[in-house]
Amino acid sequence: QVQLVESGGGLVQAGDSLGLSCAASGSTFSNYAAGWFRQAPGKEREFVATISWSGGDTYYADSVKGRFTISRDNAKNTVYLLLKKLKHEDTAVYYCAARLRTLGLYGVRASQYHHWGQGTQVTVSP
Length: 126
Known about the structure:
mainly beta; 11 strands; 126 residues
């Protein structure tokens, strides 16, 4: 079973960039598709981006398309999320998630993932 640990969150200003990392352990990471979700106070967890087990396929929420980039390095058991042109409304706790690749190429719903990290806070000041 894979364990996930996010890092890289912080406080930035609108327009800045930030890089998040999600380190996986406990299982062969290339057996998993991965995704990033976020949850703002008082709101439901929402999909941000997803990547297939090989990294060859990605998909983004419309709200972040063109600003965020998901990638992975299976040799380092890590998935990344690069956040650019940050907006105040990007403020949230960002979660990394993983699902077995046998379940499908990737997923855009939280219910499709069975493994979650603890989250990392991203705060964007106006």
